Every structure is written in C-alpha cells, then in structure tokens.
Amino acid sequence: MPLLVTSVEYGKNEEKMKMDMMDSAVEMLKAAGLKNVKGYNKAMPPGRSIHEMGGACMGHDPKTSYLNQWNQSHEVSNLFVTDGAAFSSVSCVNPSITFMALTARAVDYADQQLKADVI
Question: What's residue 92's pLDDT?
Fold first, then answer.
C-alpha cells in the first residue's frame, strides 16, 4: 500500500521573512507613535501558524514538485491541491483570495479534462 512520507521544516527564507516581518511591525508601531515597542521572535514549530504553505509544491519537474501548473498531481491525474500546500514560498499577507482563484482555475481545467475524457 502506498504510504505518504513527508517532512516539514522552516528554511532560511522563512527565517529571514520572519525577522523582516518583526522588524517592519516594530518600525510601523513606532512610526504610529507607540512607545516601548519591542519585537517578538519566539521559535514556533511548523503547524502553529494559520497560513503555513508548502508541502505539495507546484512545478514542471515531477522529481522536484508534486503538482503541475494546474495544481494537478503529477502522479494522480484526478487529484488537485488548491490550498497553500501548492506554494513554495509566501509573504506575510492573507492568501485566501489566491486560494479561491487557484481553485476556480483548477476546477475549470479539470472540467475541460473531464469533457475531453482525459481524466
């Protein structure tokens, strides 16, 4: 029976983005007139934040990515992943509208593929 094996960890890019977000937040709060502002940088394990991404990234090469440009699995033609798992990197903003757009795009593509009897 096939078994999914996965590993999740923060990389250098995520650590740099976390520091930049903290520094930017402190700068904005001070610019707004707040006093005694200090940054907060506590190490958190993956899974503790609400907008974590990655794990089933999009890409052209099945050796280095799980999904194609349509959010469709390289290996399972009727599997589409349209949440943050498809992202290889993100910013510090809410991704919900992007999820909706990717989902609409993937559904349209899947519908075309079903009508063509490809999947």
Answer: 65
